[in-house]
Target: Sec-independent protein translocase protein TatC
Amino acid sequence: MADRKEPMTADAARGDQLMSLFDHIGELRKRLIVVIVVLLIGMIVGLVCADPVYNFLINQEPVKGMQLHAFSLWDAIGMYMKFAFVIALIIVLPVAAYQIWSFVKPALRVQEQRSTLLFVPFVLFMFLVGLAFSYLVVFPMAFNFTTKVARHLNLIETYGIYQYFSFMFNIILPISLLFELPIAIMFLTKLRILNPKRLRKMRRLAYFILIIVGVVVTPPDFISDSLVAVPLILLYELSVLLSSVVYRKQLKADQAWEAEYGQ
Model:
C-alpha cells in the first residue's frame, strides 16, 4: 500500500508562515535598498544641477533683484543640500512607486498588474503639477503677505539665502506631495484596501485635514487659505471619483469571474 502523506503539523505550518514572513521582509529590504541607492544617486545629480536651478530661480519674481545674505557659514551648503534633495525627490519618486508596485505585484491578478503599472509615470506627473501650482500660485501669495507685514512695521528687509529657500520649500513640498493623493487612492483601491464608500465616510475628516494644511502653508487670510484648500478638496473629490471607477470595474470583473468559474 502506498504511504499516505502525513498531515502538516502545527509546528510545520507555523514554520512555513515564518519563512513566508521572512521572505516578504527580505523582499521589502531589497526594494528599500534600491530606493535608497537611487536617492543617493539623485542627491549627487542634485548637487551637480543645483547651480543652474539656483541661477534660474533667483532671476524669477519675487526674488529677482533682491540681495540674499548668508548669516551662517553653513547657509550656502544648506541651500545646496535643499536643492539636491528636491531634485533627488523628483528622480526617486517614480522609482519608489515602481518598487512598491513590484512588491505587491505577486498578490495581483495579471490584469491588475498591468493596470496598476500605469500609475507609476503619473506619480511624477502629479508631483510636477503640484510643484508648479505651489511655486507659481501659493508661494508668491505667502511671500507677498509676509513682506507687506514687514513693510507695514517699517522693518528693513534683509533676507538670508537659507531662510528664503527654506520658506519656499516648506510651502511647495507638502503641497506637491499632496497632489499624489489621487494616484495613492486609486492604487489602494486596486489593492482592495480602500473603496469609495469608505472614502465618502472619511470625507469630513479629510476636508478638515486638507483645510488645516491650507491654513498652515498660506498667509492667515481667507482668500489665500481658500486658494489652497479648495484645490486640495477638489483633489480629494477627484480621488473619490477615480476610486469609484476602479471599484466598479473590480465588481464587474468579480461578477464575470463568478459567472465563468462559480458554477
About this structure: The chain has a mean pLDDT of 83. The longest strand covers residues 68-69. The chain has one domain: 30-254. Residues 30-254 form one domain.
